[in-house]
Protein backbone atom coordinates (compact mmCIF):
# COMPACT_ATOMS: atom_id res chain seq x y z
CA UNK A 1 0.00 0.00 0.00
CA UNK A 2 1.34 3.42 -0.95
CA UNK A 3 1.03 6.15 1.66
CA UNK A 4 0.50 9.77 0.73
CA UNK A 5 2.67 12.57 2.08
CA UNK A 6 1.24 16.05 1.85
CA UNK A 7 3.26 19.16 1.01
CA UNK A 8 1.42 22.45 1.48
CA UNK A 9 2.43 25.22 -0.91
CA UNK A 10 1.11 28.68 -0.06
CA UNK A 11 2.08 32.16 -1.12
CA UNK A 12 1.36 35.61 -2.36
CA UNK A 13 -1.22 36.54 -4.97
CA UNK A 14 -0.02 37.25 -8.51
CA UNK A 15 -0.49 41.03 -8.29
CA UNK A 16 2.30 41.25 -5.71
CA UNK A 17 5.00 39.84 -8.00
CA UNK A 18 7.08 41.85 -10.48
CA UNK A 19 6.41 39.08 -13.02
CA UNK A 20 4.46 35.85 -12.56
CA UNK A 21 6.71 34.16 -15.16
CA UNK A 22 9.81 34.92 -13.08
CA UNK A 23 8.03 33.71 -9.95
CA UNK A 24 7.09 30.49 -11.75
CA UNK A 25 10.61 29.65 -12.92
CA UNK A 26 12.07 30.37 -9.50
CA UNK A 27 9.27 28.46 -7.75
CA UNK A 28 9.78 25.33 -9.87
CA UNK A 29 13.53 25.32 -9.09
CA UNK A 30 12.93 25.76 -5.38
CA UNK A 31 10.15 23.16 -5.23
CA UNK A 32 12.33 20.64 -7.08
CA UNK A 33 15.00 21.01 -4.36
CA UNK A 34 12.50 21.00 -1.49
CA UNK A 35 10.56 17.99 -2.81
CA UNK A 36 13.78 16.01 -3.25
CA UNK A 37 14.80 16.81 0.33
CA UNK A 38 11.29 16.09 1.67
CA UNK A 39 11.11 12.68 -0.04
CA UNK A 40 14.74 11.54 0.30
CA UNK A 41 14.14 9.06 3.16
CA UNK A 42 10.56 8.19 2.27
CA UNK A 43 10.41 5.16 0.01
CA UNK A 44 7.11 3.95 -1.40
CA UNK A 45 5.18 7.17 -0.79
CA UNK A 46 3.17 9.35 -3.12
CA UNK A 47 3.59 13.12 -2.92
CA UNK A 48 0.45 15.21 -2.93
CA UNK A 49 0.74 18.97 -3.33
CA UNK A 50 -1.77 20.84 -1.14
CA UNK A 51 -2.88 24.32 -2.15
CA UNK A 52 -5.57 26.90 -1.54
CA UNK A 53 -6.70 27.37 -5.17
CA UNK A 54 -7.21 31.06 -4.48
CA UNK A 55 -9.18 32.89 -7.17
CA UNK A 56 -6.57 35.67 -6.86
CA UNK A 57 -3.98 33.45 -8.57
CA UNK A 58 -0.29 33.56 -7.82
CA UNK A 59 1.43 30.78 -5.92
CA UNK A 60 -1.75 28.69 -5.59
CA UNK A 61 -2.09 28.47 -9.37
CA UNK A 62 1.63 27.81 -9.79
CA UNK A 63 1.45 25.00 -7.21
CA UNK A 64 -1.24 23.32 -9.32
CA UNK A 65 0.85 23.72 -12.45
CA UNK A 66 3.95 22.35 -10.71
CA UNK A 67 2.08 19.28 -9.48
CA UNK A 68 0.74 18.49 -12.94
CA UNK A 69 3.93 19.27 -14.91
CA UNK A 70 6.17 17.27 -12.56
CA UNK A 71 3.86 14.24 -12.68
CA UNK A 72 2.44 14.37 -9.16
CA UNK A 73 -1.10 14.54 -10.52
CA UNK A 74 -4.00 16.60 -9.31
CA UNK A 75 -3.14 18.65 -6.25
CA UNK A 76 -5.40 18.58 -3.21
CA UNK A 77 -6.96 22.02 -3.26
CA UNK A 78 -9.05 23.88 -0.71
CA UNK A 79 -10.58 26.89 -2.48
CA UNK A 80 -12.13 29.48 -0.20
CA UNK A 81 -15.88 28.81 0.06
CA UNK A 82 -17.11 32.39 0.13
CA UNK A 83 -20.76 31.39 -0.39
CA UNK A 84 -20.69 29.17 2.71
CA UNK A 85 -18.49 31.22 5.07
CA UNK A 86 -18.44 34.76 3.69
CA UNK A 87 -15.42 37.04 3.84
CA UNK A 88 -12.91 36.91 5.44
CA UNK A 89 -13.82 33.64 7.21
CA UNK A 90 -13.68 31.64 3.96
CA UNK A 91 -9.94 32.36 3.74
CA UNK A 92 -9.35 31.46 7.41
CA UNK A 93 -11.09 28.12 6.88
CA UNK A 94 -9.17 27.29 3.70
CA UNK A 95 -5.85 28.18 5.39
CA UNK A 96 -6.73 25.91 8.32
CA UNK A 97 -7.56 23.01 5.98
CA UNK A 98 -4.17 23.36 4.26
CA UNK A 99 -2.36 23.21 7.61
CA UNK A 100 -4.41 20.30 8.98
CA UNK A 101 -3.73 18.24 5.85
CA UNK A 102 -0.02 19.02 5.28
CA UNK A 103 3.01 17.30 6.78
CA UNK A 104 5.13 20.28 5.73
CA UNK A 105 4.21 23.78 4.55
CA UNK A 106 6.30 25.95 2.24
CA UNK A 107 5.43 29.64 2.19
CA UNK A 108 6.46 31.85 -0.74
CA UNK A 109 6.37 35.61 -0.15
CA UNK A 110 6.46 38.38 -2.72
CA UNK A 111 9.35 40.85 -2.36
CA UNK A 112 7.08 43.45 -0.74
CA UNK A 113 5.94 41.13 2.07
CA UNK A 114 7.60 40.65 5.40
CA UNK A 115 7.49 37.48 7.51
CA UNK A 116 6.48 38.90 10.86
CA UNK A 117 3.90 38.17 13.51
CA UNK A 118 1.81 41.23 12.67
CA UNK A 119 1.40 40.49 8.97
CA UNK A 120 -2.22 39.93 8.00
CA UNK A 121 -1.53 38.21 4.70
CA UNK A 122 -3.12 34.82 4.17
CA UNK A 123 0.31 33.35 3.59
CA UNK A 124 1.59 34.52 6.96
CA UNK A 125 -1.61 33.42 8.71
CA UNK A 126 -1.12 29.94 7.25
CA UNK A 127 2.53 29.91 8.33
CA UNK A 128 1.63 30.94 11.89
CA UNK A 129 -1.10 28.29 12.02
CA UNK A 130 1.36 25.67 10.82
CA UNK A 131 3.83 26.55 13.55
CA UNK A 132 1.11 26.43 16.22
CA UNK A 133 0.03 22.99 14.95
CA UNK A 134 3.63 21.67 14.98
CA UNK A 135 3.91 21.39 11.21
CA UNK A 136 7.38 21.91 9.71
CA UNK A 137 7.31 25.27 7.94
CA UNK A 138 9.81 26.96 5.62
CA UNK A 139 9.49 30.48 4.29
CA UNK A 140 11.00 31.79 1.04
CA UNK A 141 11.10 35.21 -0.56
CA UNK A 142 11.73 36.23 -4.15
CA UNK A 143 15.20 37.86 -4.36
CA UNK A 144 16.49 40.59 -6.64
CA UNK A 145 20.02 40.02 -7.92
CA UNK A 146 21.71 43.43 -7.80
CA UNK A 147 24.55 42.29 -10.06
CA UNK A 148 22.35 40.87 -12.80
CA UNK A 149 19.64 43.51 -12.28
CA UNK A 150 16.78 41.02 -12.25
CA UNK A 151 14.58 38.90 -10.01
CA UNK A 152 16.31 35.56 -9.93
CA UNK A 153 15.32 33.04 -7.28
CA UNK A 154 13.52 32.20 -4.09
CA UNK A 155 15.73 32.54 -1.06
CA UNK A 156 15.07 30.78 2.20
CA UNK A 157 14.25 33.57 4.63
CA UNK A 158 16.74 32.82 7.38
CA UNK A 159 15.80 34.01 10.82
CA UNK A 160 12.11 34.40 10.06
CA UNK A 161 11.27 32.29 13.12
CA UNK A 162 12.56 35.09 15.37
CA UNK A 163 10.03 37.43 13.80
CA UNK A 164 7.15 35.06 14.49
CA UNK A 165 8.11 34.40 18.15
CA UNK A 166 6.57 30.94 18.25
CA UNK A 167 8.22 27.63 19.03
CA UNK A 168 7.29 24.29 17.63
CA UNK A 169 8.04 20.58 17.93
CA UNK A 170 7.70 20.33 14.12
CA UNK A 171 5.26 17.49 13.41
CA UNK A 172 6.26 15.44 10.42
CA UNK A 173 6.04 11.82 9.29
Number of domains: 1
Uncertain runs: 159-173
What do the pLDDT scores average to?
84
Could you tell me the CATH topology label: Rossmann fold
Largest beta sheet, briefly?
6 strands, mixed
* Helix count from the secondary structure assignment: 6
Distance between the termini: 16 Å
Q: Globular, elongated, flat, extended or rod-shaped: what is the shape?
A: globular
Task: Tell me the strand order in the biggest sheet.
Answer: 3-2-1-4-5-6
From the 3D coordinates, which CATH architecture would you assign?
A: 3-Layer(aba) Sandwich
Can you give the helix content as a percent range?
25-40%
Strand content: 15-25%
CATH class: Alpha Beta
- H/E element string? EHEHEHHEHEEH
Structural class: alpha/beta
Radius of gyration: 15 Å
Number of strands: 6
What is the topology?
Elements: E1 3-11, H1 20-39, E2 45-51, H2 59-69, E3 76-77, H3 82-85, H4 89-101, E4 104-109, H5 122-132, E5 136-145, E6 150-156, H6 160-164
Parallel strand pairs: 1-2, 1-4, 2-3, 4-5
Antiparallel strand pairs: 5-6
Helix pairs in contact: 4-5
Amino acid sequence: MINNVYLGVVGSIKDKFPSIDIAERALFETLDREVEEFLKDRLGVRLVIVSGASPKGGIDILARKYSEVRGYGEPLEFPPDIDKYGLPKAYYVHNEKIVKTSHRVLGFLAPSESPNEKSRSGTMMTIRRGIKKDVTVKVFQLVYDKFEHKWTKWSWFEGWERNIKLTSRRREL
